[in-house]
Amino acid sequence: MFYEKELEFLKRIYKKYSLSVITFDPEIPMEGIVGAELLKALGTDISTLSFSDVVGEIKDVTVYRITDYFQCNYVFLKLPKNRDGFVLMIGPYSTEPVEEKSVLEYAEVLGLGPKQTSQLARYYHNIPVLPE
Q1: Cα(21)–Cα(10) distance, rounded to whole angstroms?
Q2: CA triplet 33, 12, 20: central angle to 5 degrees?
């Protein structure tokens, strides 16, 4: 790829800010991107769907921002053609700190017990905050 060095540089920069940067084939099942355990814990039934099935068509030269059900934000874009249509995704991140009240609300909606709620709280406290 003609942009491999730039991509690696971008990944190193974002890693310094504790941001995850991944590249993946948008046609593989979601469980290969997110992880089957997380999808099962969230009670979702999208593990067999692909990223493209979930987000729809991903156009060239377009940057997308999405916010999931749990107010985690992601930015993604389609990499140039010579990367076989792979997607670059940055996230999760939050635009503001997640309050304890919100964590408890999410846990209640999911029917999580105290241990899982504690894990969810730790997860949110480790998500980088990038104000808009």
Answers
A1: 8
A2: 30
Q: For 69-84, how does the pLDDT look when each residue is reduced to its tens digit (9 = 90+)?
A: 777 888 999 888 655 5
The helix (H) or strand (E) run that includes residue 113 is none
How much is the pLDDT for 37?
54
Angle between helices 114-126 and 100-110 (to 10 degrees): 130
3-state helix, strand, coil split of the chain in percent (to 5) is: 40, 20, 40
Q: Who's near 23: CB < 8 A, 6+ residues apart?
A: 7, 79, 83, 86, 87, 88, 89
Q: Would you say 120 and 102 are in contact if contact means Cβ atoms under 8 Å apart? A: no
pLDDT tens digit sequence for 28-53: 777 666 655 555 555 556 657 788 87
